[in-house]
Write a structure and sequence with these properties.
It contains 3 helices and 2 strands; from the N terminus they run H-H-E-E-H. The protein has about 80 residues and is mainly alpha-helical. The chain starts with 6 loop residues before the first helix and ends with a helix.
Length: about 80
């Protein structure tokens, strides 16, 4: 929306997002998102029973696999972000 208002409006919008209040808001939102992700991955390890034949995979291994996949996906997104495409 701000881009349609012109370059000055967009620059003012970006300047507002760089203010300490908005940075604090985004850091708190990031902390809540990380907390939710961590608790969700730990919960899925308890709820999701994975069996290999007759044996049950330990919940810690399921949680570790979730966190590993989260890290790989985050690195792929970071890689594409840094390459600009």
């Amino acid at each position: 929306y701000q881009l349609r208002q012109g370059p000055e409006a967009y620059a003012a919008f970006l300047a507002k997002l760089r203010s300490p209040g908005w940075i604090a808001f985004h850091l708190v939102a990031l902390a809540f998102a990380l907390y939710h992700s961590i608790t969700w991955f730990n919960l899925t390890a308890v709820v999701q029973v994975v069996r290999l034949g007759e044996r049950q995979v330990p919940p810690r291994l399921v949680a570790a696999a979730n966190f590993l996949l989260w890290g790989v996906v985050s690195l792929v997104i970071l890689f594409f972000f840094l390459l600009g495409g």
